[in-house]
């Protein structure tokens, strides 16, 4: 049984506590059904989904919705299963050496960005626009450098759940988020 099949034996999630909004059940159920079909679809087919697609999925919050914590944990397992499948497909298509070369190149590009001076690692939001706190992002960038450069331990969960406080004129959120997505891709690839 594939990791994905084990994951989706049941798609029932507990509802959030009364008064706390959760993910709209119909949206979650529809997405999981789409993911079932996509997992068995040929790569490149219209039904195909990637691990990045799963990572960027969001659901509307409603009263009597599914527990966000339970659904988020399930989506992380689903993303892991799709990433494993993507790695297996890439290895069979191009071979291990070519695949490892691509992963190393991506990791080096990330490391080059993370090695920039503090306060200059990412584009800034406008002076009156909220961005991510430069100090928070730079502190996390140091953790990421330790992982890529020195092999220090860093969990994928830490990367997935990192939060930054807001700051006017801080780092542009979309650029930081794209880098974090690439870090996640690299970490999933070498798992």
From TrEMBL:
This is DivIVA domain-containing protein. InterPro entries: CHP03543 (IPR019932), DivIVA_domain (IPR019933). It comes from the Bacteria. It comes from Mycetocola tolaasinivorans. NCBIfam families: DivI1A_domain, divI1A_rptt_fam.
């Amino acid at each position: 049984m594939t990791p994905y099949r084990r994951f989706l034996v049941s798609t029932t999630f507990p509802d959030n506590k009364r008064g706390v909004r959760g993910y709209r059940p119909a949206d979650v159920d529809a997405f999981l059904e789409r993911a079932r079909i996509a997992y068995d679809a040929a790569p490149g087919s219209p039904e195909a989904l990637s691990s990045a697609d799963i990572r960027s999925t969001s659901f509307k919050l409603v009263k009597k919705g599914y527990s966000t914590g339970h659904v988020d944990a399930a989506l992380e397992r689903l993303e892991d299963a799709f990433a494993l499948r993507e790695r297996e497909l890439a290895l069979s298509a191009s071979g291990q050496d070519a695949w490892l070369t691509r992963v190393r190149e991506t990791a080096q590009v990330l490391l080059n960005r993370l090695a920039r001076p503090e306060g200059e690692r990412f584009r800034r939001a406008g002076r009156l626009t909220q961005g991510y706190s430069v100090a928070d992002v730079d502190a996390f960038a140091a953790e990421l450098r330790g992982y890529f450069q020195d092999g220090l331990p860093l969990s994928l969960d830490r990367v997935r759940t990192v939060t930054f406080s807001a700051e006017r004129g801080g780092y542009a959120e979309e650029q930081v988020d794209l880098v974090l997505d690439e870090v996640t891709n690299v970490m999933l690839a070498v798992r």
